[in-house]
Amino acid sequence: MRLTEEHDQLRNSMLKFIEREINPHMDQWEDDEIFPAHALFKKLGDAGFLGVSKPTEYGGLGLDYSFSVVMAEAMGAINGGGVPMAIGVQTDMCTPALAKFGSDALKREFLAPSIAGDLVGCIGVSEPQAGSDVAGIKSFARKDGDDWVINGGKMWITNGMQADWMCALVNTSEGPPHKNKSLIIVPMATKGVERARKLKKIGMNSSDTAQIFFDEVRVPQRNTIGGEGMGFMLQMIQFQEERLWGAANTLGGLEQALAATIEYTRDRKVFGKSVLDNQYVHFKLAECATEIELLRALVYTATEHYISGKDVTRWASMAKLKAGRLAREISDTCLQFWGGMGFMHESKISRFYRDGRLCSIGGGADEIMLSIICKLDGTLPRTKKE
Known about the structure:
Elements lengths: L4 H18 L3 H7 L4 H10 L18 H10 L7 H11 L3 H6 L2 H13 L4 E4 L15 E5 L2 E12 L6 E7 L9 E7 L5 E6 L10 E12 L3 E2 L5 H37 L1 E2 L2 E2 L4 H29 L5 H26 L9 H9 L9 H12 L9
Parallel strand pairs: 1-4
Antiparallel strand pairs: 2-3, 3-7, 4-5, 5-8, 6-7, 9-10
Helix pairs in contact: 1-4, 4-8, 5-8, 8-9, 8-10, 8-11, 9-10, 10-11, 10-12
């Protein structure tokens, strides 16, 4: 992936926005366990950050996906993972299928105002009994005249307490689990949608995460993205952008964690010299820097394939797998070198340690990524039928 002056301009603009509009408020938003999504998204929309790779006819910038990756990476400079994750849901998790496969009417009703920052979106896939096992969801929509009537619920929904609409994956027939699902846009103000509770998490505290129930929720069938029964396939396509975005954002966060640790260990004195002067410490941090650059190469290679039109399920799965592993390993290494201060709730590294843990779970757990890679590489054990 070749970075241009335009990429640098976008990155610098995002970094300035973060320092002006986000980081000064992060501590308060962490304490509140929510941030003002509508107010912040409107500022992001006005600045052009919510539709970087979306079509210009709906208010986007019409740039290729490498610019979205650069923006995700730049958002690693935010002092906490909750807000960038919420932004990523808006830009790269609930809107890709709508932008690619939605009708013009749906795009004008939901995509354009989401790009402008006038609406907040969320993605509804996971359920209490079906997280990474997407085929196992139970929510069901039946036809009634020209409407869908939806019953069921969704779990762990980022932006769920504030969202105006959900891109919901639900079963729409009794057929095979990979062919009986549809993506349906559900306005959250619709009768029967209940935001049951805001979930308390060990990290990503500034992001509101909700449990949602559907009780006879009636929406027009025209709210279906793509064709009926195409939901599983469209969500798998949508996952490619979600996982690339997550890996790129983690990459940016890792860089910030490493830089903060170098600064802290240089200033912290133990037995008369700085912690960083110990060979073990600076060698270990050099290993961390090397791993970060390897992740960057993987993310950029996956992005290059994606913008050339290739299916990058394998590459995106590898990038997300590696990002999740490094979020755990590098944050643990860095926190150790912070000593007692690293265990304090208010320190930068402890927040990254808590927030980064989600990367190996959300958007498909590490084990799911490994299964996908094995399947595509032909390394799964043979069944008796084979």
